[in-house]
Amino acid sequence: MAKVILAGGPSFALFNPSLHASLGVLYLASSLRQAGHEVKIIDCHKISTFDAERNKLIVNPDDMEPCDILGVSIVTPNAEFGGQLAAAWPAQVKVAGGPHVTYIVEGSHAHFKQKKYFEGFDFLMTGECEESFVEFCNAFDKGEDVTRIAGVTWFNPFGMQHNPSPPLPDVTKMKTPAYDLWGNYSKGGLQVTSVHGHSIDAAERTIGSLWTARGCPYGCSFCADARTKLREETFEQIELEVKTLAEIGVTALRIWDDVLTIKAKRCRQLADLFHDYGMLWRGWSRVNLMDADLYKYLATKGCTEMGFGVEHGSARMLKAMNKGTTPEANTKGVHICQDAGISARAYLLIGFPGETWESIQEMQDWLADCRPDAASLHMFQPYPGCEVWNNPQKFGVTIPPESFSAMWELNQDDPSTCILDLPTMTKTELFEARKMLHDWVTENISLRLANR
Length: 452
Hints:
- The chain is of the alpha/beta class.
- It contains twelve helices and 19 strands.
- Strand 10 and strand 11 form a beta hairpin.
- The two termini are 41 Å apart.
């Protein structure tokens, strides 16, 4: 039996980095525990601070518990800080996984397949690792060669060595995530207050996270998970997960499926389940899945907010993103949701290749006309795995080589998060546009933080 400590990467630029546990880590912990390993999950934000001037994570050595294996799930903007955490941790072996690892190791840019981009880690693991990381820990515990495991990646004097990723695991065989190992459930994550009167007060509700399905069949050019197979958990699995969360005091849910409403009948059944356990909840949808009767039903079953990947108010920009929607369809979808009594949040992207001051104005005009209950403004980042990352020349941009730690979408006060010089707008102009829109949204749309 190996002693394994798991963590999500440090994300101090987020509004509330401790609000949600990494679901991937929770599933991983469950698989490891079932295999007989001793597992602990840590919230690295509780044992570390961030020195912004030096761009460095500060960890108290007294808070770091020795272990056999440290596993850190990283995404692009926190990859460097995940490595700093690993470098300081007293573990025999330090392993990085998560989407950043997979899309770099198996991606198209040889430049980034270097040890310097993964300092602090002994091994990397690609793909979904609920089964392969268990095999890694089993092999380590027995003193066997871990480099034979599918998805394991390491560096030697000859460069990067990589075993192909394992097949995607069967989600219908997944055990309930180890929710009990996350000791930091927070309150208030479903609150909405908009200037035109829609208010939801969930300040005293403890919030938990849930996947009912993985994958998204749509082909948006800004998304690394575009055109991935939809894999659904069974209702028996989902009910056990909701029951487990309810038993530890959770009364509100964020459903992290990319498109919760993709199957209306299934969505109704899920809503019934959430309601039966007294949950308020929020999810994500697409405006092309317009179903007024469905939204009216969800409103009676505890749905407080639906998020829509509107992305833009410009028809030209939506086409450039391969979004498959129009500004008019976006408005109609948002209003159908609002008419049902559900708060509609628009997620918007600034700075996708092709952005101009004219398209920025179109976004503001769309917001003024549509009036969603809330809007989240994200700076486009060319994350590994998305089409812009894979084919930057197609979009007229260059991927800066040392920019991962600046790839935060939501930090509107930091101009360094504008990393792309577009042929149509400079980084300085994009920062100015983002700040202008953020201030406008805060004043005219949502009284709560516009970047939640």
